[in-house]
Amino acid sequence: MSEIGILGGTFDPFHFGHLSIAEAAIEEFDLSEVILLPTKVQPFKIGREMASEEDRVNMVRLIAEENRKLRVSTIEAFSQRVSYTYKTLKLLQKEYPDDKFYFILGTDSFLTLEEWYKGKELLREFAFIIGIRPGYKISETENTAKRLKEKYNAEIRMLHNEIVEVSSTEIKNNIKSGQSIESLVPTQIERYIDEHGLYK
């Protein structure tokens, strides 16, 4: 049985913050791989201006091509429905019945996990790796993990990742104002954004 991490997100664009969490999870928990899962559109982001699914998938694929432990799934990106984590994990479970999945979350998402679509079922049926995000207290995350473990018998692992302070908003603002994004995104993504005129 392989232990596989799943890191979902709009990845609009994929940046060093995403990459650092994926690599830290692989290293700390000896995962066989991490599946990068670009979403079509998250329910709470409907209506926001975003790069196309094709562009976001292409950018993530550029990263996976250079890291043998990263793989891209388009199960959500090119779906005709809104992305719900519970439904996606169930589909992946059918596709890989002999593997164990760890859904990788940042602190901000984790603190509201119980309120997600079928959040209680998610906590009972799947395992989680929680990465610390900038601006959140570790104690708050640990207390939430303790409560959810006791309430749902949830399997929750805390990731001791280095905090990388990058946001997609910062990246887009830099592009619009003509500033460099070299320190915020991998080189191949910077090149792709430039070549395709994204976020201008």
Structure summarized in a few sentences:
The protein is globular, with a radius of gyration of 16 Å. It has 8 helices and 6 strands; from the N terminus they run E-H-E-H-E-H-E-H-H-E-H-E-H-H.
Task: Note the quaternary state here.
Answer: single chain
The beta-strand count equals: 6
> Kindly, what is the distance between the CA atoms of the first and last residues, rounded to a whole number of angstroms?
45 Å
Number of helices: 8
Shape: globular
Low-pLDDT parts are none
**Helix and strand pattern:** EHEHEHEHHEHEHH
Mean pLDDT: 92
Helix-and-strand structural type: alpha/beta
Main sheet properties: 6 strands, parallel
- Strand arrangement, largest sheet? 3-2-1-4-5-6
The proportion of residues in beta strands is 15-25%
Helix content: 40-55%
**Rg to the nearest angstrom?**
16 Å
Structural account:
The chain has 200 residues and is an alpha/beta fold. The chain is built from 8 helices and 6 strands; from the N terminus they run E-H-E-H-E-H-E-H-H-E-H-E-H-H. Helix 2 runs antiparallel to helix 8 (187-195). The longest helix is centred in the C-terminal third of the chain and has 15 residues, at 138-152. The protein starts with a strand and ends in a 5-residue tail after the last helix.
